[in-house]
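Sample intake sheet
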Amino acid sequence: MLKIIIKSFTFWIIFILSVSTISAMEKSITIGMQLEPPNLNPTGGAAAAIDEIVYANVFEGLTRFKSDGSVAPALAKSWTISPDNLIYTFKLNENVTFHDGTPMTAKDVKFSLERASSENSTNAQKALFKDIESIEIADNLTVAVKLKVQNGSFISNMAWGDAIIVSEETISKAETAPIGTGPFKFSKWVKGDRVELVRNNSYWGRPISLERAVFKFINDPTAAFAAVMAGDIDAFPVFPAPESLSQFEADPRFNVIVGSTEGETILSTNNKKPPFDKVEMRKALAHAINRQEIIDGAMFGFGTPIGTHFAPHNPDYLDLTFNSKYNPSLSKRLIKESGYSADTIISLKLPPPSYARRGGEIIASQLRNVGLNIEISNLEWAQWLEQVFKGKDYNLTIVSHTEPSDINIYARPDYYFQYDRKDFRDLMTKLNLATDPKIRTMYLHAAQRQISLDYVNGFLFQLAKTGVANAKIRGLWKNSPTQANDLTGVSWSD
């Protein structure tokens, strides 16, 4: 009888422990990422990996992007626009606190936007704030932003990760121990391994399901595959080995998630550094590229060819791929006419993502076939940011620009590909002033045509979002309207 009682007791202990373990697992999620961010401050760094962790999770802005790309209220519950379209008055949500317990007020909005738009701002998207003339506080929950000129994209600009609201008292900690207002709080950063977040039980907004989120950094595609298969990673939203997706599709334990991104993948070109300071050489470059070969070889068929810096899923997109159709004979003739010497070494500096490293090898071969002397340098992310993005010490590089609707970067002469055309800047000014959708479409079409015919960059493909996740996970974004792993709506099914 005693043995029966002991066995029964043991069974129930094991059962309770098993249920507890399952319950704990379903309150936690481990997200795989290929790149580790250089820091966790989205207001001071350009790396997409920053927002992939903190956007909507740790930090929030006045507005935010939803999964379908539309803009929704966030810290601002509503806003009004003056008749002249120059003054935006934001009404803030009540009872919002930072993770250290201090209230978030209009003072923090004023500080954040003035800091982002100041002369000494280090914000990678400082241009988002250039039209701000002044910021006035009406009361603790009301702030008025006055613009110098009309900007039809201002509400959308406030949804970017670069426009998050921070506290003056804690912004100095943002790089390594960020303090925001979001549903998750920063817990731990084990450099070279993972970042851990925990649920903010004092969150002002809609409660979240998860109690803990871990972002695990796995650079090697083979290791990423093994980690997902073993269950060490619950979801890898941007899986670095698309060639392995068919294996996951055949396994009922997993869902393969294929969507679109805002990621225009381009052969970025230094327009002020010889030999590509000549439009003839940039045109030769464009016609030397076989886009489909790159998509098939580097992305295993996942990706949409583009001929300009614009997302194909956008209703204002123009298909201009014919302007740079693969034509190596034309490319060779243009190179010869330009006076290029094969003794001139052209640097191709590649960041870590697999699309860049794999695509770079293919592109280098294509360019060598038309007579260009290409030298590949594989850089770590911090090196790429320092040498290419900041230092502009390069000829060519490959990167996906994942920011939403960012054709306006071509109006920045000091941007890293150094395209300097006053008529394009004037075009962007007209676009910003326009509020009529038809007029805005006209200007966007003109902008796409100009950079396509100026061959500013080698326009390659729109980056597909190919991910894999445990089949029981619900609420992950299929598409990426911005660079984010938004976990606010994620849960586990029974």
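Comment: The chain has three domains: 28-37+180-259+466-492, 57-173, 262-464. The radius of gyration is 24 Å.
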